[in-house]
Fold each of these.
Amino acid sequence: MNFKDINIGLMLHKRALECEIEMSRLCKFFGCSEQDILDMYTVKSLDCEILLKWSRILEYDFFRIYTQNLILYSPPSAIITNDKESSQMPYFRKNIYTKEVINFILELIESGEKTKNQIIEEYNIPKTTLYKWIEKNRK
């Protein structure tokens, strides 16, 4: 799922239905009208503060959808920059994969959707890392 494929409004709506949260509760929580909530269900992206509120009320980390996407589709860390010390921003290593990302990659291989070589090239996952995941998955 690329950024262009993420439709956060649709995901919010699905999760709200799963949680069976009444519209009146959502309106009160957000301090808005029912139409405002329905409008949020139709947008492809939302302001971070609003998404954080949705994450709280629906008890789901919607930001993780974006961070996992970054992990999969960003260029390798070494190519980006070597001046991490000069940046004032926190540095996050790219090679920290969540269970969800690992499972997603393994499902692509098991389903035959992608080959091991395609995974290595497309997602910049080291060959040894991929084979460790496959071996652990077999146990």
Amino acid sequence: MVHGNERIAAQEFDCFESGEKEEQMARFSEKFLLGAATAAHQVEGNNIHSDYWIQEHLKHSQFSEPSGAAVDHYNRYQEDILLLKEAGLNAYRFSIEWARIEPEEGSFDQEELGHYIEMVDFCLAQGVEPVVTLHHFSSPAWLIRRGGWEDEKTVGCFERYVRYVLPALAGKVRYICTINEANMRIQLEALMKDMMQRMQHAAMTNKEKAESMQKKAGDVQVGINMQSDMMAAAMDSAAAFGFQDPRKLATFVSPGSTAGDLIVMKAHLAAKKVIRELAPEIKVGLTLSLHDLQAYPGGEAYAETEWADEFLHYLPFIEEDDFLGCQCYTRKCFDESGSVDARDAVSFTQMGYENYPKAIGNVLARVAEKFHGDLIVTENGIATEDDAVRRVYIDRATESVAACIARGLPVKGYFYWSLLDNFEWQRGFAMTFGLIAVDRENGFARHPKESLAYLGSLRS
């Protein structure tokens, strides 16, 4: 899906075509971490021991297609890292897949751990800073069967996994994100409640309800597929993990309770304690899914409540972290009735939310008012078929990041999402975020886009 407005936005890039102009645009220092990000399940392929793999293969699956071999990054990571380096980028954020490391509870796979250490070593050999995420949405299937992210025992399980992995990373990795988008479960809970209330009062056909819910799913920054047989999918998913009640299923990307939210924070604190104990030189933090929240007259209270839920109530758990990973793709607007579409929106992305690149700078500035550690943009990007639109987005987003640095904010890095076109969770392979296209029909051939080189040109 490419909107006509994306084509219009692409024309803004005409003034950046010459190499001379691109060199003048370099806006980040040599030491600034300028890179791209991936998540293991979305790029590696054949993650057969994870909760996602099971859900992708159900009769009534919410996934538009299974991940399969994904984009074969597991076998092709060297090629991908070299493309990143050759474009001028100096950092790569990627995740370690817990389900590979501990496929059965208490049983660890040293060979799989070795694979990730080889990735770290290859990055270092190329002069690329590896930034490692320990948990990026997907979990071992056994963890979900025993209660998942609503079970207090998950904290100890995560701590055990981190304690196993950490010694191999010590002395090699300088930055670790414990948990990706630690607030995602609460965001999904709020989304589902809002959707259910809307649907109960709406005289719509099932098709119209599904379309309305899919549009509303753009409120969360993850690939959610809303379909008319959601109840059948929920029942199948619950049964696959041994539950009769779908509400008992607690994957990381399912609606979470207040108690479940606290379990995620406890898991982060436990992981941080292990890292500080075994490798105190490593800078540790987590990442949060954040929006640029804007209020029209009458919407101020809604925006403030949303910010408290999305960010402020996590401060007691992260205030002693070394850095915060800020992940922002767009804005959300509010008026006296609550969340509304932006009145001046021009174009939208494949994901359904507004193309609004300067949101990231606004979020960094607001976060810095309360969080006083370093800031890293661990994800920011756009899903679009038009790479000229992607370049405009990167230009405007990084311009807003550079402005924050000029104001004295401690922003240490920017990671575009994503290095590769990949498996966008329940939305499958149709969402194209990548700086590199992958031909999955012809041997997973890589085709770097112009946006990759453009991003690399922004570092001096």
Amino acid sequence: MAKKLVILGGGESGVGAALLAKQQGYAVFLSDGGSLKEIYRSELQQAGIEWEEGGHTEERVLAADEVVKSPGIPEKNELVKKIRAGAIPVISEIELAYRFAGNSRIIAITGSNGKTTTTSLIHHICRVGGLDAALVGNIGTSFAKQVAIDPRPVYVVEVSSFQLDDIDRFRPHIAVLTNITEDHLDRYEYKFENYIKSKFRIVKNQLETDYFIYNADDPVTKESTDKFNIQSIQLPISMERENNAAFIKDGDMYVRTGEDFMNMSIYDFTLKGKHNQYNTMAACVTAATMDIRKEKIREAVQTFQNLEHRMEHVATIRGVEFINDSKATNVNSTWYALESMEKPTVLILGGVDKGNDYALMEELVKEKVKAIICLGVDNTKIHAAFKESVPVIIDTASAAEAVGAAFAHAEKGDVVLLSPACASFDLFKNYEDRGTQFKRAVIEL
């Protein structure tokens, strides 16, 4: 009899897992507590997969041989507790994809900040270097769906800590950890060490022939590398000291892996800002371990286009530049954005707070921000944190209102920066929706 696989959650990863499992001969049932997007409904129907929405039929879920859980569903969910109590194995969609990925090489990227940029850049370098690589995971197409519909020899996978929580044998040939800062602590019992453990699961199954690329200047990562049993070859990146992998010194990046080494001026990187120098180093070391020629790596780094909603230039209106960094959903992301600002800044901040410590931003806000425009339902914490640092703090309730208020407080030569440091679910569907509405409001000024 076919193994019964229940998939909880019918978003991109859930539907991808359902398609792959069906193709591999599982008896598949997908259950979503909310409502499915029309596109996912039709994909499930076409594949002949049973599904339900608007609630879960418990007896069907608890009759599963195995459950694939959406990364968005927390452990404290009542149904998840019952699944655990019934000792039913729970895996993530990346674990399922890994089972059927064959001999393809997997490059997996995680980290609190910079992972989407680093993943996209690695994929771009692979493509320029002539590798047939797919860009999957948190960033777009689910890993499982790609394996089912269009398998490739190389997968560049962006993975979140939530996806890593439910892996068993998932093993990337190259694991990249960009950094670890306090994020999503609401999902980890507000214990930072739980979140750190989660991130380090990326190396759990790696062997001596695999590679682990990490930021040696990131204090949390550096302190943690000795606490985990890492079998793979460690390749640190740094701006503070020379090493045997990659470092930046006097405005030049040096990448050494094995016998070969390349160097390149940081002024040739298309990605600007110190944090992006780390992202670029991580991507270049990854490419070097994949034996991509250094001329191709150099060409790719010089031609990379930045992502939508990540430090995206929208327009300059009457001398005021507008930047969409809606993807900054935690304090550290916003810190990095502010760090790269070179002009007086009007900052649009706020949304759903995940336990933010705004004190981390205080110095930069004092130094660079002339006004804060709050864009959220509850902005009391932002007022409390910055009332001493910034002369103007204004509450707004829509993207258009926020853009109007920001423009009114900006002068020629200033920047209006949407970098909210919060999730977007109070006023918007997601960070993309927030960024899109911001851009529309700017263009309509």
Amino acid sequence: MRRYDTSLQLIPESNPHMWDGVQKAGMIAFSIGLLGLVVSTLGGGPVYAGIGLGLTILGALVYIVQTRKDGPPGIKNHYIMFSSALSRGYLGWMAAIFMTGFYIILYFHPQHLKSLVVLVNPLQVWLSGSSAWNDKGEMSQWFLYGFLYTVTILVMGVRALIKYRHSRYQILRTLSVMFFQLAFAFTIPNVLAKLNDGLYFEWANIWPLRYYELFPYSVEDLLRNGALGKFMLFWSIASILVITPILTYFFGKRWYCSWVCGCGGLAETLGDGFRQNSDKSLRAWRVERWLIHSVLVLIVLTTGLMWLNHIYGGSVLGSLSGKFSIAYGFFIHSIFAGVIGTGFYPIMGSRVWCRFGCPMAAVLGLLQRYFSRFRITTNGGQCISCGNCSTYCEMGIDVRWYAQRGENIVRASCVGCGMCSAVCPRGVLNLENGPVRNRTGIPV
């Protein structure tokens, strides 16, 4: 693209992908760090893991902080579809393969991450009071996973804060997901486990997202752990039956999906650059509705059957009771939510799991669609059909279709990220909480 000044001389528009010296140094450090991490998985030892992790974090931060000098505050939405990394080019596919490969190793071949586990084990012992190795010498990779997950959200959260520093809503939303991941999803559960003989509880996750939270064995484990365990059980039940409906009524599903949830936090930070790759077709919308509600039905049935089997002493399912949980954990929690849900960011957009599989998102979506005051209001007379809103919708909603007609957007899938409003050059879209209306359009 070129623009003209008053003297009619051609002035080339700056390309945001032309890095300065500091950004190049940061990217070099980041690349060397990734290489060190790869070497550590091949038996390179904790030294390579430490150097790799340190350089990866340092390089990313150096590059990210320097982007504040790329121009004035605001969302720069040009050149996106010309970027190989951001528009399903070869760099995007390489990123998808790398991220998918990491999750496969994490879930199914954790022995390759031994060097990284050794590296963070002192932190695990200090924070949670337990080692990554149990009395039988078996290694657990899950503290490492939580650590890397949290560090990623914090580092990429800095990027989001810089990128969206012109928007108070985006700044608060980013700070919120960073805080809830660091405090309620990582630090507090580990500290409480140290203080209460290994009792681990993820306060930021709610059933049915944390699918095993209300399984019989989980409930019994909480009841055996005194007053704190009973409070955790009370919190689990109140979260889904009381807190969720009330907050969704007033704020829509955004209160959780865009402000609290760790899955959403990773999507909004690490996955932010890939949001434009979500499929906006009607076919994708149909698949979305079938898949996400099928997963919700599946976990409700699984939980119900396990309780029936528990109440009747195993006479309902017998040995199949545990297999239901294992099957759900493998196919949905590990493959769908983990490997596909995160690894496919560069190919299918940043909300693959949230859009197509998350049962908590399905619950919140039904409440939002039929019970909530939240909607995105539009002013069709001001819409110029530029398409920025649809392009940047990570949930695959064709926002422009609604904006052109002046129709309010009340979709079950909308997570209220506010990006459509932020990229609109005419101020057509606004996130609002209004009175609930019945089918005749009369406020109730």
